[in-house]
Structure formats: C-alpha cells, structure tokens
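Hi R.,

Here's the chain you asked about this morning:
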Amino acid sequence: MSDAESFEPASYVPKPMMLTDHAQGRLRRLIAEEGNEALKLRVYVTGGGCSGFQYGFDFADTSSDDDTLIEFDDVAMIVDPLSYQYLVGSTVDFEEGLAGARFVIKNPNATSTCGCGASFMV
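And the predicted structure, written out as tokens:
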C-alpha cells in the first residue's frame, strides 16, 4: 500500500454559528458562578428594536426537541428554529467597554443594524 492509499482525510463539520474564544471564556465563568454545568447560552431573535428585529440572550439548562444545540468543547449555545434562520452564519462575541459588558452578534444576514448593535433588519 502506498502513502497515497493510506491517507485518510480529516473530517470537518462546519458549525452553523460561531462562539468566539472570549465569549466562551465569559460563558464558562458565568456557568461556574451559577454552579450549574448544564447551563447553555440561548440566543434568539424577537420582533422589535429600532431596526425591526432584536437579539436576545438567556441561559437555559434544558432545550426543546426542535432547538439547535451548537457545542464548543465544554460550553454550548441553543437556538430555536424561528431564530435559527436569521442567525445561521453569525458569530457571538462578548465585549466589555464604556457601554458595559454584553454578548453581541456579528450577523452576515443583517442588511442594516442600529447604532448599538442590538437590533437588525434582513
């Protein structure tokens, strides 16, 4: 058997959304503070906000059968099916600044966003 015949390509399964290292670290700290290893970051979209849709974040230790679970080592995000269509391809980050500390979304599907980045339009 030649080297070419024994080569096995590595498999890669793309994630529908990304969670930056900084956001993962913050999520780990929040989970430790709560003392609940089952907590996951729930990311969702609701109507409203100055641009039409608004991002929301919550913590959950359970999910519905139709939710999408996106795992990153020892932390995970949950996205409901309605929100998923607006968030696929997005990156969740955590930022700290003069306006405070918060999770934020960089969404390639948004055609416009408000000044604070909490709402968007598709």
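The chain has three helices and nine strands.

Let me know if you need anything else.
M.
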